[in-house]
Specification:
It contains 4 helices and 5 strands; from the N terminus they run ααααβββββ. The mean pLDDT is 81. The chain folds into 2 domains: 2-79; 83-156, Beta Barrel (OB fold (Dihydrolipoamide Acetyltransferase, E2P)), CATH 2.40.50.140. The protein is α+β, with helices and mostly antiparallel strands and 156 residues long. A 5-stranded mixed β-barrel has the order 1-2-3-5-4. The chain has helices at residues 2-20, 27-47, 49-71, 75-79; strands at 102-105, 112-117, 120-126, 136-143, 146-151.
Length: 156
């Protein structure tokens, strides 16, 4: 009986580590899940349906709690790409982005990409030329939600 409990605790511990400390690997979590399942099967075989069913419910509850607490943790936010566009697709204020404004390309722009002005990322478009990432850009014209840019050192 003691080794079945140890087997289940090791399974819970591995699942806990998967969710909180090493997310994304899946290998540790799968091993933990298999150890817990093996412990439940052994409990069913050795002690019958009632004990096995109770252990299955308790295991399900513990796994649910581990996952729910892990989803509220900042672990998933650390793994996410934080370099994103603002949630609004270029809702440009008339006074904010004007022709002649200088910024730089956050991504390659060919013909659409990302430019940064005033510490804010915007979707920008060229009139044909490819603009490499990191190049200074200048706003040529603004139409509602479309910002047309050119490379700063391009006199065309």
């Amino acid at each position: 009986m003691t080794w079945i409990i140890i087997l289940m605790l090791i399974g819970f511990l591995l699942m806990f580590f998967e969710v909180y400390f090493i997310p994304g690997t899946s290998f540790i979590g799968i091993i933990g899940g298999l150890l817990s399942i093996a412990a439940i099967i052994l409990l069913f075989r050795k002690f019958g349906n009632i004990t096995g069913s109770i252990s299955l419910l308790i295991t399900g509850l513990i796994v649910f709690i581990i996952v729910m607490l892990g989803s509220g943790n900042k672990v998933w936010q650390r793994m996410a790409n934080q370099n994103i566009l603002s949630p609004k697709a270029n809702m440009v204020e008339q006074d904010e982005i004007k022709p002649g404004l200088i910024g730089f390309a956050i991504s390659n722009i060919h013909p659409i990409g990302t430019g940064r002005f005033f510490e804010t990322n915007f979707i920008v478009q060229t009139e044909g030329d490819k603009i490499p990432k990191g190049t200074p850009i200048e706003v040529v014209k603004v139409n509602v939600a479309k910002i047309i840019v050119k490379p700063l050192n391009n006199n065309a």
